Amino acid sequence: MRSLVILFIFLSIASCQSSSQPEPVQYSVPTEVEPYLKSFRDEASKRNKSVSTDNLIVTFGSAQSEDVCGQCILETGKTPQITLSSDDFCWKTASVNERECLVFHELGHCLLNRAHKTEKFPNGAYVSLMNPDNVAVYATCRYPIGGDECDKRDRRDYYIDELFDATTPTPVWGN
Ligand SMILES: [Zn+2]
């Protein structure tokens, strides 16, 4: 218990120090991730949301959080930092939509201050791209098993609406 208190005091001091000396604005995004940043900016402006992506670092590495393939670290005064897992199934062999879902989920944490949302619609689909269990909410299936679960392309607009506005009403297919 005492160590927890000391840790808390230490973190308080650390956060005070970092906020008094903010890191400079910096933008560093791998070339293969840049198209998804562009798409994020496009989707934001389509919805008249002003979201700056000017201060952001994205790297490939090993993500260590409840998001299997990614991680966002947000600290006061520091540049938001996203780590995408370099495991093949997270990126190399993932589809364009799966990659977009992953990047948008982490941008939701890092640029939109969104937390996880675990609720599901009556039909069992996740309410939000911000669910921690399966971010590929509108990605088409990699394997030809057929059925409704594999045809999620029409859901993309809803999930991106919800990403930028958590009060977006339930779509028809959610019931
Ligand atoms: Zn997450």
TrEMBL record:
Keywords: Signal. Residues 1-20 form the signal peptide. PROSITE patterns: PROKAR_LIPOPROTEIN. The keyword Signal applies. This is Uncharacterized protein. The lineage of its organism: Bacteria, Pseudomonadati, Bacteroidota, Cytophagia, Cytophagales.
